[in-house]
Amino acid sequence: MLGFNKKEPEPTLDEQIIVALKTVQDPELGVNVWDLGLIYQIKIPASRFVVIDMTLTSPGCPAAGILPGQVARAAKAVPGVAGVSLNLVWDPPWSAARVSREGRWLMNYGR
Questions:
Q1: CB-based contact 11:22 (threshold 8 Å)
Q2: In 10 A of CB 45, how many CB atoms?
Q3: Terminus of the chain with fewer CB atoms < 10 Å: N or C?
Q4: Does residue 111 surpass a pLDDT of 70?
Q5: Which residues are registered as beta bridge partners of 84?
Q6: What is the annotated signal peptide range for this record (predicted)?
Q7: Which of 52, 45, 42 lies closest to 88, judged by CA?
């Protein structure tokens, strides 16, 4: 009898970070920062000191005082991450075109 114990591959560090970032929600829109398209880049060098470039929906975003810290803490909590440096960037400006399909669904129906 052949047994098929096909084990799913372990998620990569970047996949684990993305899962963690999906737990951070924009308090106004009720959608996570990943699906809103607020995360522009995640760099993971050999040192595992992660660098995240993110933006906000606007320079005057009311969540500006909390979202970057929440993003950094979520990424830092991932096993294997040595530290996190977060850059708040404004170029290119965020637009609704960056929202994922899941994010659009959540904005319209998920709340």
A1: no
A2: 9
A3: N
A4: no
A5: 50
A6: none
A7: 52
CATH class belonging to 13-94: alpha beta
- The domain ranges of the chain are 13-94
- Looking at residue 52, its pLDDT comes to 99
- pLDDT tens digits, one per residue of 70-101: 999 999 999 999 999 999 999 999 999 999 99
Place of tokens 């114990």: 5
Per the CB < 8 A criterion, the answer to whether 34 and 20 are in contact is no
Q: Is the dihedral of CA 65, 92, 34, 13 positive or negative?
A: negative
Q: Do the beta carbons of residue 49 and residue 83 sit within 8 Å?
A: yes
Amino acid at 14: D
Q: Is the pTM of this model over 0.85?
A: yes
